[in-house]
Amino acid sequence: MSDGVAGVNSVSREVVEKIAAAAAREVPGVAELGGDVARFFDRVLDRIGLDEVGDATRGVHASVKGASVEVTVVLVIAAGAVVADVITAVQAAVSSAVSGFGLTVTGVNVKVDDIAMPSSPGL
């Protein structure tokens, strides 16, 4: 055990984005992550067999400065969900998940980009 040994530790932006995306996806009422353009490109990648590319961090951007992190989440909300409740739950989930890695969350910004409407049978 090396008590008292100093060093510089850091967590990359991509790692923070993956943590935040996973936390946001678990919130009830979140249908998808990402804006229109990101979701479009993901559908194209899915069709050509690259369905894993971009999925892990889609819709999430993190700004990491040392141990301080600010996260922005763009999401699609499920029809019928209460927007304010989903936003509050996403902020809490992301903050908790990222803080669990020893980082200080200075803010979690949430943008609702779309509403996922239920599919109608016969259309």
Automatic annotation (TrEMBL):
Family affiliation: Belongs to the asp23 family.
Pfam families from the UniProt entry: Asp23
Source species: Paractinoplanes atraurantiacus
Protein name from the UniProt record: Uncharacterized conserved protein YloU, alkaline shock protein (Asp23) family
Annotated InterPro entries: Asp23
